[in-house]
Amino acid sequence: MATTTSLEPSSAGLAGYMTSLGSLLREWLPRQRWFAGKDRPVSELRLESMTELFPGCLHLLVRAEHAGPPTGHGGVPAPTSTAAAPAADCYQLLLGVRRELSPRQRRALIGRPAAGPLAGLAVYDALCDPRSALLLLERLRRPGQAGPLRFEADPSVLIPGGLAPRLLDAEQSNSSIVYGDEFILKVFRRIQPGVNPDLEVPWALARQGCTRVPAPVAWLRTTQPEEATLGVLQPFLPDAADGWTLALRALATGDDFTAQARQLGQATADVHLALAGAFPTGAHRQAARTAAAMAERLDAAAHHVPALRPYTARLRTAFAALGSCDAGPRAQRIHGDLHLGQVLRAGREWFVIDFEGEPSRPLAERRLAESPVRDVAGMLRSFDYAARQRRPWRPEWARRCREAYCAGYASRAGWDPRKKHALLRAYETDRAVYEVLYEARHRPDWLAVPMAAIERLAVRGG
């Protein structure tokens, strides 16, 4: 590398590097799947911190400020959100810088700056470079620091060196590297101050002895500009398949999925029980506040999706019923974004992953106690989505899976979601309303899937 950078650049130095990188990143960032501000023009890019991890690799935190009114995912906040999207987002980048690139590095090329300290050099996404990925693992294997970056690990776990890396291409909100089919490193792209739940929750559950969630073995955080989690290394389950893939496979072959659904319900309850033991529980429910937030999201969605309007009056009854139904389970830490894509099956066991929650929500909000019924409703909606991937649609398949899942959950949790009908209907309705708005905005051909649930929930009440 022809140019190196101080581990603690001055403000003038940071500005100089933005002279090199600003125009390239302004064009490159909105094309990335994990960039959250695609619906809002970038008004300014600001370099928050920069560290040279090793020769030829720069670690950056870049703040993107957006013009125009902020919106949530799909136009309004997600079902669990009470706040609009922020006017600025901070992103984590690992950039390789070289004079000449290998064929693999050229495929990850961002561009060659025309000015500033990196002028004429090739800048590329270093996570796509096996050499950089290996060196990143080496930093995690040996706890220490580089400028504001802190590399930490569980001292009881041995992480071998030289594990071949491969970058996964399936994720959208983050980037993940698998090392030798033994470990997986999730690199968070959108950074918020505080401890990320995808580190906090698995670590706490491991201390509880919960084996349903892979425990973190090493992690990366920063102390500047604020304390934040940047990445987590966990055991990889090489022979596992996610629940979505398994459900679609069962539908394609005509196989029954109720046994797996029942076991998945048991696994969900196991995780909820461990979460209740690891974190403080809250009140049973703030019924009026919860119902008002759900009704507000319904009104916003109906404003954007006319097909929803004939059902709004009857859907509001689901939210109004929250105030008159029994207390239900106590609020507690939950997964927050549970569906078939967030669970893995290895052998005969189910594992729950990705506790980060909805990335567009403020981190502090994602860490709040909520009703476990929200997670249950998310999984029930996921069965419905799976059943409608093939034609003719298979509503009976979804119904059987939903029943089996709830039965499995009840066998471990000590309460039955099906007997909390008003609660379950309200949370499932809230989820379906969000899905209607999302599909109308992004996948109009899929709109019929949540609209069928809307009709069921409005006309038949569940």
Explain what you see.
- The structure is a single chain.
- This protein is an alpha+beta fold.
- The chain has three domains: 1-128, no CATH class; 130-236, Phosphorylase Kinase, domain 1, CATH 3.30.200; 241-460, Aminoglycoside phosphotransferase (APH), C-terminal lobe (Aminoglycoside 3'-phosphotransferase, Chain: A, domain 2, Alpha-Beta Complex).
- Helices cover 39% and strands 19% of the residues.
- The chain contains 13 helices and 16 strands.
- The strands form three sheets. The chain has a seven-stranded antiparallel β-sheet with strand order 6-7-12-13-10-9-8, with helices on one face.
- Strand 8 (165-167) and strand 9 (174-179) form a beta hairpin.
- Helix 7 (287-304) packs antiparallel against helix 8, helix 7 (287-304) runs parallel beside helix 12 and helix 8 crosses helix 13.
- It is globular.
- It starts with 10 loop residues before the first helix and ends with a helix.
